[in-house]
Write a structure and sequence with these properties.
The structure is a homodimer of 568-residue chains.
Chain A lengths: L2 E7 L6 H12 L4 E8 L2 H9 L13 E7 L2 H9 L1 H12 L8 H7 L5 E4 L3 H13 L3 E4 L6 H14 L3 E2 L5 E4 L2 E4 L6 E9 L1 H13 L4 E6 L12 H12 L5 E6 L4 H12 L5 E5 L8 E2 L2 E3 L3 H13 L15 E6 L2 H11 L6 E3 L18 E5 L17 H11 L4 E9 L8 H12 L6 E7 L8 H10 L3 E3 L2 H10 L22 E4 L2 H9 L4 E4 L9 H16 L10
Parallel strand pairs in A: 4-5, 4-21, 5-6, 9-10, 9-11, 11-12, 12-14, 15-17, 15-18, 16-17, 18-19, 19-20, 21-22
Antiparallel strand pairs in A: 1-3, 2-3, 7-8, 13-14
Helix pairs in contact in A: 1-4, 6-7, 8-11, 9-10, 13-14, 14-15
Chain lengths: 568, 568
């Protein structure tokens, strides 16, 4: 029968590579059936349980718990006795060459480094990143389990200094052709990426390479960057870099479903980027359309395809959104599903968008009879059709609403659908055209009509289109084309660009690595200059002592003394 | 100065065409500036207000309110005095030819009619539809403002009888080449549609025609059909018709975002349809992938394109989902975004799906260490990485989980990602292959691996793939392809097909129209046999009298007397 033996080491810091190698070392010992060497967090304790390695030890998240299952008592005891030796073996390898013991020392040794890669455990990571910013370095922050407050403070500080903080929990980046963290080797080329998504960025860059395209820069932001509290700080900095970078011709933005307000800021900025921008808002419903220079993909692979196609296109699409005072879209639909699809396509770009066919509660138009800002109305909704013909038959309601919108100086574009076919009004253009002609007498107002129907419909589609055009409407026969045309006529919100990060930072980089040695090794393997810091947690990882050190440092800084990291 | 005059006619029923024509008649009178003639619902009163036509009259939803704004008192009084004449003029036109006064009489006159088109006001519509079912007729129910309870009862009754109820609020259908309600004239062809969306169906059928394709049948369901309470009753009947119809080679299903449980029933049925099925779940986030015979589009136009492409393809894709006892997918990801995209793509097809990266709350996996049914796990989530290397570097966690899943007889397919590149494990296949080989010794278990990376990555992608294949894994390099492969290995849930609606019903139809005359005229214009019922509401639309009539009828039916409609 197998026996289970365990050991707890309290309050000590161990690198996770060390723990992995300890576990493997234990497993290789004679008579050992299974082994675990983990920090005793609740999740890790459950994982031990699942492997039949749970013991009765009382141990907390700061304690190292080592468990061995062996064939005999002797084998188990022998394994635990070997722990010190296994830990020492590891340390000896890591110390084989001379390495700086602090970030400051590393910066003196490799002053040309503009990047610091941080992958120390989460509770130490913000401190290291803060030191890096203080030393004027940009940060690639791989570590996860960093608090939101720390993220906000770090990014705020970075923006102020014109530096970039990618992360926390930023798994990947490709800067000047060199991959940081987990990164695929891809051709260099004209596609620049910003991503609040690690494997998302890896999957898209890999697919771009497979499709024959290439990558200029791939900037990670960490998965929370587009949350409300962080406000897309890094994404905006990244977008700004890519729009200024002459080597970037197409931009891709990848994000998990984020705060609508933040997406609206990013898309507004993207409209002013003067380059095509492909969005993959993962898990967010989007229409299939291109809107001005913005393109929306519904999968990572599709985002890559779109970007490669756009980069290959001979001409950069005319991109710049109209400038000027805010003016609003007023879309007056008779077709409910068309109204819905308009909301779907526009919601991330025209913000806030109000409608009586909302996709989310915040879009609800309080009073469907009065537009507020950008508004999409389905005039065929139940509330409008009691004792009244559907607006596909009776245009009265829409004609009145068209006049009402035209009388509002905030209205910039009126969009109407004209649905032809059996059962519908026999000649809608005859009623709509005079009202359109009257509306467009206001020179700053455009009327767009999307005509849905076929060349066999009884209304004579060509004649309907001709009549609407003669009255001054722009006419499309596909909703996506009409929405694209509408967007091009509306000014983008004026989101200020952040303090610019200099483009030199994105040339072939030199980097200082603090944390997982594997990331240092990979930068070196890619032929870039790098230095690995032989990092140890302040106060040996003891939380109480760390608190005292932090206070001492704060006092020193408060009294004007030069800031020095506690590790020195 | 303009004067406003009004008139209220209490409790009387007026056809909405009559009201439109009354309003137009008033507007044409000398000195009249504007006019309204509406049932005094709250929405209509607000609309009058918006046009400056609101008066102080007390009037309710069953009352007709006529308002005139005129240049002078005389003109206003004159207009109101003309109302009776205008109403009478209309009636004379409608009565120009002989018409049956009841549905029963119409059925005797046109016995070959298999359809009844109902477009009377909402509060009368369910009664007419019920009569039609009782007479063995299928129903196209255009009317809106019909209660959910009535919809459920009507569809339940129809399913029992092998009849179809399209609607309520079904704006459009094309049956045997003849459009009902609002319908575009389109080429006949191999694409059959079911839609819980009126203009959605119009837009897709029009686009199919524009793209050179053609339509076999287009079946509307009404917008609420895929809600929980209705359960997709009509959509399932429609899907069943199209799968049996030899003229239909590709099926398109369009719906506004519906209840996940109901979508799961429809997609499960679609997997058994043995034909390609294109879904446009409007407003619902979907992945870009094809899953077996199911295809997901993110816009109406894209749905049309996909359907036309599929109909043109030489070979019908091998479609049939595996049969047999329920077996589950267990997807173990190291890449968080890949896990997310898997949930996105699979959520409408594998139901219920549990995950630690949920898109909606109901998908949350209570205990991420134990799979339940179909499960997608991101093993790189924060909770797993405290004091532990990311699973892209350390495979230990995934190897243990792989063994755990393989030991569960409910597991049918295990899906793993293998992310290559800088920073990642230098040879993941060396560790994964032995565990995979052990897992696939269970003959009813398949292991799929999706390898993300490029041919330039340091791990040698080709060698990695070869090693995984040699161990018995099926390998893809795109997530969508891996998901497609996984789905083909999993049996579809066994949704029973409803009582079949005979295919003869979908040959060139004859129809009886009750309600808006324009729909009768359009069926006739399309060359089909039709009859228009000169319908009047029971008891002249008086709610109290109608209640008494309903009770009398119920008594008669309860005592076994033949059911007769109250209009007779």
């Amino acid at each position: 029968m197998a026996v289970l033996r365990s050991q707890v080491r309290r309050g000590a810091y161990y690198d996770s590579v060390v723990l992995m190698q300890l576990q493997r070392g234990l497993l290789a010992l004679p008579g050992v059936l299974d082994a675990g060497a983990v920090m005793a967090t609740p999740a890790n304790l459950e994982l031990l349980e699942a492997s039949g390695l749970r013991t009765g030890d009382s141990a907390g998240p700061d304690d190292l718990l080592i468990v061995v299952r062996a064939e005999t008592d002797d084998a188990a005891e022998g394994a635990l006795a070997a722990v010190d030796g296994l830990l020492a073996r590891r340390r000896a390898t890591a110390d084989a060459e001379f390495r700086p013991k602090s970030l400051e020392a590393a910066v003196r040794q490799l002053p040309e480094a503009s990047w610091v890669l941080v992958s120390v455990p989460g509770r130490f990571a913000a401190g290291v990143a803060r030191d890096a910013l203080r030393l004027g370095k940009n940060v690639f922050l791989y570590s996860d389990n960093v608090s939101l407050e720390d993220e906000i403070a770090l990014k705020h500080e970075a923006s102020r200094l014109g530096l970039l903080v990618m992360g926390p929990d930023c798994g990947t980046a490709i800067i000047g052709g060199v991959g940081f963290g987990f990164a695929n080797r891809v051709r260099r080329g004209p596609i620049g990426l910003v991503a609040a998504s690690g494997t998302g960025l890896q999957a898209v860059t890999s697919a771009i390479h497979e499709l024959g395209g290439g990558v200029s820069q791939a900037i990670g932001t960490g998965g929370r960057d587009l949350h409300d509290e962080v406000g897309g700080a890094t994404a905006l900095e990244g977008l700004d870099v890519l729009r200024r970078d002459p080597a970037t011709r197409v931009i891709v933005v990848v994000s998990k479903p984020p705060e609508p307000e933040v997406v609206a800021r990013i898309t507004a900025a993207a409209r002013r980027a003067a380059k095509p921008v492909v969005f993959d808002l993962i898990g967010e419903p989007v229409g299939g359309a291109a809107l001005g220079n913005l393109h929306f993909a519904s999968s990572l692979y599709r985002a890559a395809e779109l970007a490669v196609d756009l980069a290959r296109a001979e001409t950069t699409p005319s991109e710049d959104a109209a400038d000027g005072a805010p003016r609003y879209l007023r879309a007056l639909f008779s077709g409910g599903t068309l109204a819905y699809e308009a909301v779907l396509a526009l919601q991330h770009v025209l913000h806030p968008l109000r409608t009586n066919v909302p996709l989310r509660a915040s879009q609800r138009l309080e009073d469907p009879l009065h537009s507020v800002g950008h508004t999409v109305v389905d005039l065929g909704a139940d509330q409008f059709t009691v004792g009244r013909l559907h607006p596909m038959i009776d245009n009265d309601l829409r004609l009145r609403r068209l006049r009402q919108e035209a009388a509002d100086p905030a209205t910039g574009v009126v969009l109407l659908d004209v649905v032809l076919g059996e059962g519908a009004h026999p000649d809608p253009a005859s009623e709509l055209a005079p009202a359109i002609a009257e509306a467009v007498r206001r020179k700053d107002l455009a009327v767009l009509a999307v005509v849905v129907g076929t060349d066999e419909d009884p209304q004579d589609r060509a004649a309907q289109i001709e009549r609407l055009r003669a009255a001054g409407a722009r006419v499309a026969t596909r909703l996506d084309e009409a929405l694209d045309a509408a967007l091009r006529l509306l000014p983008a919100a004026d989101v200020p660009w952040p303090q610019p990060v200099p483009l030199e930072v994105f040339a072939r980089p030199a980097a200082i690595n603090v944390g997982l040695e594997v990331f240092y090794a990979s930068v070196v393997a890619q032929g870039a200059s790098a230095l690995h810091v032989d990092w140890r947690p302040p106060a040996g990882g003891d939380e109480r002592l760390m608190g005292i050190l932090r206070k001492m440092k704060a006092t020193r800084e408060g009294s004007g003394a030069a800031g020095r990291s506690p590790e020195e």
